[in-house]
Design brief:
With about 160 residues, the protein is of the alpha/beta class. It has three helices and seven strands. Strands 5-4-3-7-6 form a five-stranded mixed sheet. It has a two-stranded parallel sheet with strand order 1-2. Helix 1 runs antiparallel to helix 2. The longest helix has 30 residues, at about 10-40. The radius of gyration is 21 Å and the shape is elongated. The chain starts with a strand and ends with a strand. The relative contact order is 0.17.
Length: about 160
């Protein structure tokens, strides 16, 4: 079950425009590159052909990513702030044994309009702190499979 991603109208429009370009003009351009490289001869040793096919693969991957993101996205403001971490909140955390804190926004990495580090609600840390408030300590699983603990220092709504 996927979690919704909140996007500003500006981010949604930008991503929708990128998707429209990739699925239209972008696909035509890459098909033309592949055809031109194919006409050069032997495909085994044709660097241009292989580069164009790799570019096509990356483009198709981006199309799938954007399609999934925009299909489930909510555009506008995140839900009313209730003190708990979630999409649209800035969370400050402290790792055990470390006096330094880390501050990040829970949101979409596609919305590049913030100088803060952005973690999605589907990321290990973003998902672990979601629904929790300042003063809570949560455990989550690192990408390497090991558990980690983090104390939530503060949670506040994000304001541009």
């Amino acid at each position: 079950m996927s979690q919704q991603t909140w996007l500003t109208q500006e981010a949604y429009d930008r991503l929708r425009g990128e998707l429209d370009h990739l699925t239209g003009t972008g696909r035509v351009e890459i098909a033309n590159k592949i055809e031109a490289a194919r006409e050069e001869g032997d495909l085994k040793e044709n660097g241009g052909y292989h580069a164009a096919k790799e570019e096509q693969g990356k483009m198709e991957s981006r199309i799938r990513q954007l399609t999934d993101l925009l299909r489930d996205a909510r555009v506008g403001e995140a839900p009313q702030f209730n003190g708990a971490a979630g999409p649209g909140t800035v969370v400050e955390v402290r790792f055990p044994g470390d006096d330094d804190t880390e501050k990040f926004l829970i949101g979409s990495r596609e919305d590049h309009s913030t100088p803060l580090e952005v973690y999605s609600a589907q990321s290990p840390l973003g998902g672990a702190v979601a629904g929790h408030k300042a003063g809570d300590t949560v455990t989550y699983t690192l990408p390497n499979g090991r558990p980690a603990r983090v104390a939530i220092v503060s949670v506040e709504p994000y304001h541009r």
